[in-house]
Amino acid sequence: MHGLAFDIAHLLTGSLVLVSFMLLYQGRMFSLLNVFALHAFVLSLSVAWQALVQGAPHLYVTAALALVFKVIVIPVALHRIVRRLGIHQTLEIVAGIGPTMLAGMGLVALSIVVMLPVTVGVDTLAREDLAFALSVVLLGLLMMVTRRNAVSQVIGFMSLENGLVLAATGAKGMPLVVEISIAFSILIAFIVIGIFLFRIRERFDTVDVHALDRFRGERL
Amino acid sequence: MSVATVFWGSVALLAIGFLAAAARRIMTARVVYAACLAASTVLFGVALRHLWFDGDWSYGMELPLGLPWIGARFSLDALSAFFLLVVNLGAAAASLYGLGYGVHERAPHRVLPFYPAFLAGMNLVVLADDAFTFLFAWEFMSLSSWALVMAHHRESDNARAGYIYLVMASFGTLSLLLAFGLLAGADGGYAFDHIRSRDPSPLLAGLVLALALIGAGSKAGLVPLHVWLQLAHPAAPSHVSALMSGVMTKVAVYGFIRIVFDLLGPPEWWWSAVVLGLGSLTSVLGVLYALMQHDLKRLLAYHTVENIGIIFIGLGLALAFQANGMTWAAAVGLTAALFHVLNHSLFKSLLFFGSGAVLTASGERDMEHLGGLIHRMPLTAFAFLVGCAAISALPPLNGFVSEWLTFQAILLSPELPQWGLKFLIPAAGATLALSAALAAACFVKAFGVTFLGRARSQAAAKAVEVDRFSLAAMFVFAALCLLAGILPGVVIDGLAPSIELLLGDRMPVQAYVPWLSIVPIAESRSSYNGLLVFVFIAASTWIGIYVIHRWASHAVRRSAPWDCGFPETSPATQYTAGSFTQPIRRVFGTVVFRARESVEMPPPGSIRPARYHADLRDLIWDVIYVPVAAAVNALADRLNHVQFLTIRRYLTLVFLVLVALLLVLALWP
Lengths: 220, 669
Fold this sequence. Notes:
The structure holds 2 protein chains of 2 kinds.
Chain A: H1 3-24, H2 29-54, H3 58-85, H4 97-118, H5 124-146, H6 150-170, H7 176-204, H8 209-216
Helix pairs in contact in A: 1-2, 1-5, 2-3, 2-6, 3-7, 4-5, 5-6, 6-7
Chain B: H1 2-22, H2 29-53, E1 59-63, E2 72-76, H3 78-101, H4 114-127, H5 131-149, H6 158-184, H7 192-197, H8 202-220, H9 229-235, H10 238-263, H11 269-292, H12 296-323, H13 327-362, H14 373-376, H15 378-391, H16 398-410, H17 419-451, H18 458-461, H19 468-486, H20 488-503, H21 530-551, H22 577-580, H23 582-592, E3 596-600, E4 611-615, H24 619-639, H25 647-667
Antiparallel strand pairs in B: 1-2, 3-4
Helix pairs in contact in B: 1-2, 1-4, 2-3, 3-4, 3-10, 3-13, 3-19, 3-20, 4-5, 4-10, 5-6, 6-8, 6-9, 8-10, 9-10, 9-12, 10-12, 10-13, 11-12, 11-17, 11-23, 12-13, 12-16, 12-17, 13-15, 13-16, 13-19, 13-20, 15-17, 15-19, 16-19
């Protein structure tokens, strides 16, 4: 793979990392959901480009799955949940935006430092791809760790999964079955988490997981 | 095809166990033990045939189980055939004994399913040819024997015994797991063939030796890892105690030999120093512990510790000579060790059968409540006496031969180049002599207090002889003790293929030595003839009896008898187990056991009896185990609040660990 194809693939995966950063500093609920939709959209673009470049038609299915579920179904459902529950619109970040962004940059650097020596001998795109995918995964984890709100933890989890899909598409020859099963497991996880959100809301009048801790009487 | 026979035999044993759990009504104790007897007799026959006819060959088979890239591998070579023979000989006798003893079991469904499983586990350990199968079978053996230990879980102390056994067994398996991990290396070649072809660095080999000593030693009962033996072995039903003490510890010895002699490659000389030191310590401490016990089964269990020490001394000698290229001398040491493995499995099983018979007949294990049983149970007493004489290494029985061979190897130590070993090995020999003498004292006590004198309790006075099956099992083993003692050459020749497999050399062929003598190295050095000693002892005894009866006066005299310190007729005035060992306790006990004696005199005018207290502490328990347990508890208390963190904090922990691991990966050279 040369020239333009490589550059576009690189651009798309790189922008996925960029959108992950955008997720990190969102302070309002709906903008967070919109940025997540953007995240999934960039992912599906990237996967579709890989399908075109690798000549692997089953990756189109993956891209379509990402587009349908993660760009449309899940954000729309989350929008409705947030509306119906009347969840507070501002999000609280535990550590402050500045340090979180710095930590995120450190994680991206770490994943590049880890991945590049490990994958010597693999073609360049796959190397970059894996490094970016690992950063997306780590940023997703970081988001789950730095947010107290249950919805934003769900978003962090979903973006983490996007990173996994990115890694999977970069590695050539991943079977479609695995892809589809991952998509469905994510959907089921979403449903379970959604139900839990409702239950938490019913009990505590908030989806700030902080309330659960207070209820359990634990130290923070 | 013999390996397949053994494998399917073990599977058959497992099936018996499952059936015993599923169909309790049909599978009564008699049926289960008869089936186990049949299976282990067949397996014994296979092992004997392999040793006899094609000892130099090894057969293998592979099944698509276990680790996917290796499969489950089994093989039968001379060494595993020998241990298979030991295992199944013990298993057959224990099953025969169980035919009679098992009928008295109060809760048979707690014993019957696990007993065949335990036998199968031991067989599979010996048969395994890759690390995964070995560890799986090893853990299976541990867990099934744990279930047997817990058979009478409502009795006091049994639950504690089971707990300590479980902790020690898991710890030992963990060590073995690490040892195999180091042996196999990063590429996961867990098949024994692959491990043999590797050449570990000296540091790695030393580490594996230490782990093997901990792993196999904790199962075998090396000091200071012996603490569970005297708790767990007596807690099980007696035929299971016999198996655990007589056979399972030998499977542990097999594990050690397989790892250190076979898989680890050529030894370094300092390995032998470690093994010899531990072996000597184990033998002396084991017998001292045993001497202090008043519980018959616990005494026997502690005594197993001593015998394991003797076996490890033999192994250490073999390592020392092998490291210096003196393979012919190493062959003597290893033969002595393996011979003692066989011997100990014979007489320790016999003695446990005897203690089980005493338990059945009188309901007592405490020697202070026994006595005079030779009149009630003459046959048991005779078999037990043979076992006592054999374990005390009296000629012409088998215990003498293996200890004599060990001493022959010790006498070769001046030819070693290392000065450390030149000093250490005679010291080990001295401790071996000391422990042999103390063992004799120990079994004079065990036999004398239990069977001689007068009954110390009503239960002992009303004891009756046990059933035929139990007696048959005891007499078979007593006969084997005598046979192995007067025909040691046969055993030595039978061991030769195993020795040759491990060391590449063997002891001289004994079959052609005239008059059934054995000559370990050369005629000019030493030789021993068990048959001659036996004939001499038998003939001189008969002549003595004849002379007394023929020429002694037949006139009846009446006189005040020499009362032998026994002027009153109350059984309480006899020697007790405690009083018999008091001198030894005074000599060694103050240091080794921190023994404190005190006499509590009643105040003048009181009619209360004076009381004598002897307080013994287990120093190793106090010094090693109590602090470790305290540290673990303190750590657990500290970590307790980690159980109650918030979800976000758990996620943070996971995240931090992940980042830390990635950092390590990034910074790794």
